Amino acid sequence: MTAGPAVVAAGTAAAAAPAVVVAVDGDDCAPGSLAHPLRTIQQAVTDHQQAVDAAKPGDVIAVRRGT
What we know:
Layout: E1 6-8, E2 20-22, H1 41-47, H2 49-54
Antiparallel strand pairs: 1-2
């Protein structure tokens, strides 16, 4: 099954671009951009802890499917 990238975005639902991109074919040494996604959500949280800590009730963290 081919899956699109998973997106983890801390911020408002209307954010123009995701704060962090996680994809099944990503690399945890990558910067987490659309062109160079991370592999795991755990690494996204580790690398972007300030964004995670700043999330408020009503903010969206969206994760798209993948296998």
